[in-house]
Design a protein that fits this description.
Layout (H helix, E strand, L loop, with lengths): L1 H75 L1
């Protein structure tokens, strides 16, 4: 009697259980990837803003250095 019962349970697992497990794993993987992509986009925006701020700061520093060089050159004359 156990043999047909085990056979039916095996078939039910293959027909119902396996697709549910695989679907759950695929869904989890897809959601994880979407979360990582959205987080990466947020980081890209933040990184871009930070790099723009650094660039502006470096441009200001370059102007100051040029002004100081001009002052030093004029003092030598």
């Amino acid at each position: 009697m156990e043999s047909p019962f085990v056979f039916v349970l095996g078939i039910l697992f293959i027909v119902v259980g396996l697709p549910v497990i695989c679907g759950s794993l695929l869904s989890y993987h897809k959601q994880k990837n979407q979360f990582n992509e959205s987080r990466a986009k947020d980081l890209d925006k933040e990184e871009t803003e930070m790099l723009n701020d650094l660039h502006k700061g470096l441009e200001r520093m370059d102007k100051r250095i040029q002004a100081l060089e001009t002052i030093l050159i004029e003092k030598r004359r």
